[in-house]
Amino acid sequence: MRADFELYCAFPVDVERNRDDLKRDGKLTMPVLALPGATSAFAPFTEGMMREVAKNVTFRTIERANHWVPEENAKALVSAITDFL
Length: 85
Known about the structure:
Blueprint: H1 2-9, H2 11-25, E1 32-34, H3 43-53, E2 57-59, H4 69-72, H5 74-84
Parallel strand pairs: 1-2
């Protein structure tokens, strides 16, 4: 459990590092695929968050999936990734 909690404790440091990287290097220029589960609490925010850091974002939601997309709808996830590639 400690390792799990340490992940969340690192968020403030990650935020600062990400801001520094974005300021120094600008937005990502390679294509980025954002695929939250359609019923995820994060889905409404995912596209906007990705557009803050990347110029070329493709956003899709995975139906019948929430937070654990690969376990909840692997077939749709593979299809979305294959279409993107």
